[in-house]
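Researcher: Let's run the pair from yesterday's discussion. Sequence first, then tokens, for each.
Model: Starting with the first of the pair.
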Amino acid sequence: MEKLSNPEYYYNRELSWLLFDERILFEARDKANPLFERLKFLSITASNLDEFFMIRVASLKDMVNAGYKKPDISGMTPRKQLEELNRETHRLVEQQYSTLMRSLIPLLQDEGIRLITRHEQLNDAQKEYVDDYFMSSIYPVLTPMAVDSSRPFPLIRNKTLNIGALLSKKSGVRGLQPIGEGSVKKKKKNAGEKADMEFATVQVPAGLPRLIVLPASEEGGSAKRELILLEEVIERNIDKLFLNYDIICAHPFRIMRNADLTIDEDEAADLLKEIEKQIKRRQWGEVIRLEVADDTDKRLLKILLRELGCREEEVYRIPGPLDLTFLMNFYKLEGYDHLKVKEHVPVKRENLSGGNDIFEQIRKGDILLHHPYESFEPVVDFIRQAAKDPKVLAIKQTLYRVGGNSPIIAALENAAENGKQVSVLVELKARFDEENNIVWARRLEKAGCHVIYGLLGLKTHCKITLVVRNEEEGIRRYVHLGTGNYNDQTAKLYTDLGLLTCADTIGEDATAVFNMLSGYSEPKHWHRLVMAPLWMKDKFLEYIDRERENALQNKPARIIAKLNSLCDPDIIKALYEAGMAGVKTDLIVRGICSLKPGIPGISDNITVRSIVGRFLEHSRIYYFENGAHPQVFLSSADWMPRNLERRVELLFPIDDEELKKQVIHILNVMLSDNMKAQFMHSDGTYQKLDRRGKEPVSCQAVFKEEAEKNAASRAGDYKHSRSFIPETSADI
């Protein structure tokens, strides 16, 4: 329908992402959360915003510089998007610092924790302590960088915290001078700058603790613990780095650079070496954001703007400490358990723990794992046992984000050393994990594994492991499929689902997947798996249209989708058409959502909610009513053009009826959440439900409780919470 292309029916993806960061900020402002949890959420908003600038804002700037003017589905050109983002990000930063300075820091003080944000606030004893600490532990690490006619402006590295200073040489003092040139002085650059004024900078060392604990003091209150930021200690003692100079002023600053890699894969003879080269160039990318203290001397700021090539609108004047990611460190403080959420320990299933034969367990029936409520250890054991099992002939796996000291990498190395045929696709283009993945790829190659460095022009984002085993009945294939990465660390923090199966049809499809990845051989047909970028989008559109047709024929029709992001125009149009035909559609979208729910006559049958909680919602679940014969799928893919058109992704069904009920139950509990869910309005804003008079439901708390209660026996799955289980699909 032509009218469904109206830009008014779509929300800009970049502005939608900012609203996601705002929802995380809401958790930092939520008084129901423990204080250290609130600090953690605020830290996450800062980390997210950094990545958003380095990739998304940088990409828009590249478009503007290239003269690209085509509007997006919401009708906004790249330049217009940048204008709106500039306004909204400044507003978000104001909210961040208002939350920190007016709410969280005073609450820390109430708990006996004083964060000293300015070194001028130190008392005499503390000044003596930090000065000694500076000379013993900080001074030896620092490298002051002066700027004059013989020393050019230094490279300011991406995301590093720095202190810029204006200096004036003390009269009668001679420093090191180039032979035969006499004293070198900076030429007068701007009105108001002293002719002999010099600029210098020093990088705040990332290898030292950002928070420094001070000796206990009772002055000015009842603080039991006092802390100061590393940069404040350096700023206080910066004169010790420039002994021949008077310090006119010194202020912290931080820059964000364009970190989006540009790789011509057609021209790259060795993709691994090309990516290594591009990673180094990240440090030289265009500066797209400059953060300075809000009281920074105007003369110093002029120099930074000039030397870094920044525009005024790219400056963020910060009314507090720069780089709020340091707030995560409060969780490490001991003695404040009452300010933290109790540590979550993923539940281990008895039948999948210890010395149990995991292949025997899989032969008994498909196994569904729900992380982080259930342990990721069975997935690791699956590969470990395969590495040692003499009956196993081959292991094939895709790796996207792995993490440090990975037990899966160790198991694959062990498998190759034991004579197994090991094939691993390591996606070198996994953003910000490129360096880690290069290390893993080389380690695996050294161990004797066959390593594929992704596919030309595509990112391989699917999560699949295939184990080929020679058994008495013949060759049997065991498969693990997941919605999340093979990363044992993030599996404790991200919500994901995984399936272990030895179904023949999925085993055959898994073989076809790896044959396509390694040899480009396309199978004649697929049994159960659906692959992107060739088939998945069409299959989703087919399923959505089938629900539309069923609704028109008064057959049961329903769509539920849980995903991270939704911005594919074709999918959105199909959902609009289905909704207009009467299909009730519930979307659980964690982050970006370009679909606008609740538009009269267009999307009034569609709801959108976002759940932001302790764990990062990461699983992708797709439910289609199919005329009272529901189909449930899991996937590594979101409904985004990049996933459906530019990545290798997999969609896999949950065929076992009991496991299907479990997944439907997961969806139903999430739709019942009235504590962490926020609902999207047609104008793009989000709001929590008024739950007065209603029983509070937090889906993550429910899943945690269920996993713990069912740890001993899988026979009683979810029986204690029957009120959440739909007796039929129509009850969802």
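Model: Moving on to the second of the pair.
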Amino acid sequence: MYRDLPPLTWLRAFEVSARRLSFTAAAHELHLTQAAVSKHVKSLELRLQHQLFIRHPRSLELTRWAEAYLPKVQDALDRLAQGTREVFGRPPDEVLTIRCAVSFAVNWLSPRLPRFLAAHPSCRLRILSSVWADPFDAAAFDLDIQYGTGTFPDAKSHRLTQETITPLCASGLAGQLRVPDDLARQRLLHVQGYLDGWATWLAAANAPCVDPGQGVQTDTSLIAYALASAGAGVVLGRRSLAASYRQGGVLVAPFDHEVAIAEGFFLLEPVARATHLDAATFVQWLVEESATTN
């Protein structure tokens, strides 16, 4: 069976060339010469006895054979890479990969991250955003930033934020809100996935006339804050995510009543395997950074 398998270098040259539709771009990605990539692809075509590309002066076009073959090659390369990583782990010089809740990445982490990059210019980062709090996958990420109460299986957690919740709205809407029960006449904006929501705040504010379930549901705070900024309703702001909106005057708090909650954002690191060489540096910086803002 394996005697029919073309050399891996030929397959990699084909996959990148097919994805980039350019031998030149493929050569740059593979750190080879354009002539070498072209030769690898030509050798593969001769081996398979089928033309894979229609060669135009400045670009490539996939033949029907290439269109059928490409997803199979990509799947095989992905499986090989995953298997290698599963058995041997990541190369020690690979970038530090951090998954982060998208709203936290935009509203909290991004404004602070330049300080880390300035202090550690040689540290290479990859930040991948997430919406739903899937379990920490230590095989795919070095560190993870999730929202919760601090209970995360198979992970060591560091609390980054102490949260409070309070209604926020555009300044033009604030004049219509004098007491919490006035929210009954407004559209409430919800973010799915939080344990503490409108029902928590309304109960603490003694606002029995307000239906805590009415309004618009979203799956990320970014959408809810954007809607509130546009005057489409009232969002229940969390301190860590809403700070930039409030400081810039985009959103205002019509009431002084803030409710402290147990939830918050946590930095997770694995406990079952060795961490990336730069992970400890990033963890220490982020924990110290969070201590100055809580």
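Researcher: Give me one sentence on the second I can quote.
Model: The radius of gyration is 26 Å.
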